[in-house]
């Protein structure tokens, strides 16, 4: 099962290019949410929500790991499916806990991220990824 999670998928060049654009685009967009949290963490500013009762410090650290570190891993396509798990959980919490009583227009961003991350989890990162370089099948 571990090997299957590291498998970048068997996609055509055009599909892999589309996956690269999707991975990089959504990863960069998520970084715009993660970088301010990362900056707050580094500065020692732990003002953050505690949506599931883990404590504000733990919640901030988990959000930074997902939205900052995992976004970077997703962009380069390294350990992609593993990186997507914290991103999926973070967006599920945002959608189903933090924004549950908000109108759909507010929930929409978290829903779009969640759907995109789920799609990438199913398909894998494609052949234009570091997962392909390190874990893909070699054909010589």
What is shown here, in short?
By secondary structure, the chain is mainly α.
Structural overview:
This protein is mostly helical. The protein has six helices and no strands. The protein has helices at 2-6, 13-43, 56-76, 80-98, 104-123, 130-135. Helix 4 runs antiparallel to helix 5 (104-123). The two termini are 25 Å apart.
Q: H/E element string?
A: HHHHHH
Q: How many strand segments?
A: 0
What is the oligomer described by this structure? single chain
**Could you describe the largest sheet, including whether it forms a barrel?**
none
Gyration radius over CA? 16 Å
Strand proportion: under 5%
Helix % is over 70%
Q: Termini separation (Å)?
A: 25 Å
Mean pLDDT: 92
**Poorly predicted tracts of residues:** none
SS element count, helices: 6
Could you say which structural class the secondary elements and strand pairing correspond to?
mainly alpha
**Overall 3D shape:** globular
């Amino acid at each position: 099962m571990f090997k299957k999670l590291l498998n970048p998928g068997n996609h055509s060049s055009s599909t892999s290019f589309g996956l690269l654009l999707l991975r990089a685009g959504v990863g960069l967009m998520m970084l715009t949410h993660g970088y301010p949290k990362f900056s707050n963490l580094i500065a020692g500013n732990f003002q953050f929500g505690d949506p599931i009762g883990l404590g504000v410090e733990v919640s901030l650290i988990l959000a930074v790991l997902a939205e900052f570190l995992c976004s970077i891993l997703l962009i380069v396509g390294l350990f992609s499916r593993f990186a997507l798990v914290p991103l999926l959980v973070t967006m599920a919490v945002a959608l189903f806990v933090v924004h549950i009583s908000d109108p759909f227009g507010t929930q929409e961003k978290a829903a779009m991220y969640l759907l995109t991350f789920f799609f990438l989890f199913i398909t894998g990162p494609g052949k234009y990824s570091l997962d392909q370089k390190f874990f893909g099948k070699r054909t010589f």
